[in-house]
């Protein structure tokens, strides 16, 4: 690989700035292809400074179709296929499950159900709905999820959806970076971009100085330990203000989330949000009354004005990968792959001008993700 010695230091092919979810995936993938990669992360190797640390890591393209457009749904479907292959190559285990999502609602919120279903159907390809959306009534609800008993008269089972353990994924990716020889610089906040042939900016909301249109959408979650409840898959509770969910991880750990509040407010969880989240869990299963609260946490989802992810080439030596909003885990494998393919096209010289970038974009699987600085006018600014 191409290395240029500068002042005795080895100049990497790529400096990846921001080692949250996307930065780790991109650095790991490029190192696996034989490139010299350095990664700079302001936080620790565990990933505690990232939105990814707080996320529930549900991989639910069909449920999310109620709030996401077809592009994001498609990225989610493709990424759901990629995750198990990706995890299989990591040096540490990552809890990954494809046991579906259950959507339920209380009688008082029943008006939400037809609206949710209409939006979901509008944004989903037919093949995703085929066998992927099962209406349940009466005893079918506890047959699908015995822990719920007779508390919900109706529900929908979306059997093909998945979830994983976000913190295990971050840890396994950190181990994967070491195994592939990535020069990791943890606890290193970057202001001026480091020296490298190409820089890939994956700073999430931290990338705002270079991308003022980015904004944060605050999300709050609770993590509880609740032995004996035994939910087998994420349960979503329709709610007039924001969709609530309870995502069961290993060892009786549950992630209960998540609020969705405009603003870059990283302060601790509010009393109102804690009450709403925990009451929702209690209403789904009274056993949550005896759960132990391990953590109340908040972070901001990095969001672009059109709520789409984007991979932007500045026309020179910088790529920016951002805007994964509330779907980072759901879509990151596919978004990272797009970014890596463009990065490799820069290395090979296949992309080096506006025209060659336009050709690359036209041939790409997800052209909507790709932006040259010259075309970044409307939605991205
Ligand atoms: C409450 C909540 C729940 C969520 N639930 C889900 C879910 O169920 N499913 C799902 O798919 N997605 C979910 N998400 C969304 C997901 O977490 C994000 O989309 C994803 O983390 C974005 O990835 P990223 O790498 O772009 O940003 P991040 O994960 O935030 O990583 C960015 C990294 O850049 C680093 N950084 C920033 N500035 C600098 C700097 N100057 N120098 C060095 N490093 C820097 C940060 O420390 C951070 O580690 C949720 C998010 C939240 C907040």
Attribute tags:
oxidoreductase, 11 helices, FAD/NAD(P)-binding domain, disordered N terminus, binds flavin-adenine dinucleotide, eight-stranded mixed beta sheet, alpha/beta, 2 domains, seven-stranded mixed beta sheet, FAD-dep_OxRdtase, D-amino-acid oxidase, D-Amino Acid Oxidase, Chain A, domain 2, 381 residues, FAD/NAD-bd_sf, globular, 24% strand
Largest sheet: 8 strands, mixed
Overall mean confidence score, pLDDT: 94
- Tell me the strand order in the biggest sheet: 8-9-7-14-15-16-13-18
Indicate the CATH architecture of the largest domain. Answer: 3-Layer(bba) Sandwich
The helix-and-strand class reads alpha/beta
Q: Evaluate the radius of gyration.
A: 21 Å
Shape: globular
Unreliable stretches (pLDDT < 50, length at least 5) are: 1-8
Ligands (ions, cofactors included): flavin-adenine dinucleotide
GO biological process, one term: D-amino acid metabolic process
Organism: Caballeronia hypogeia
Domain FAD dependent oxidoreductase: 13-342
Protein name: D-amino-acid oxidase
Structural summary, described in words:
Belongs to the DAMOX/DASOX family. Its EC number is 1.4.3.3. GO terms for molecular function: D-amino-acid oxidase activity; FAD binding. Keywords: FAD, Flavoprotein, Oxidoreductase. By secondary structure, the chain is of the alpha/beta class. It folds into two domains: 4-53 and 185-212 and 306-375, FAD/NAD(P)-binding domain; 101-159 and 215-303, D-Amino Acid Oxidase, Chain A, domain 2 (2-Layer Sandwich). It has helices at residues 21-32, 51-54, 61-64, 70-88, 112-122, 126-129, 140-144, 166-179, 271-284, 328-348, 354-363, and strands spanning 4-6, 9-11, 14-17, 37-40, 58-59, 96-97, 101-104, 134-137, 154-158, 162-164, 183-185, 198-201, 215-225, 235-237, 244-248, 253-257, 261-262, 292-303, 310-313, 318-322, 370-372. The strands form four sheets. Strands 8-9-7-14-15-16-13-18 form an eight-stranded mixed beta sheet. A seven-stranded mixed beta sheet has the order 11-4-3-12-20-19-21. The chain is globular. The two termini are 35 Å apart. Mean pLDDT is 94; it is low at 1-8. The protein binds flavin-adenine dinucleotide.
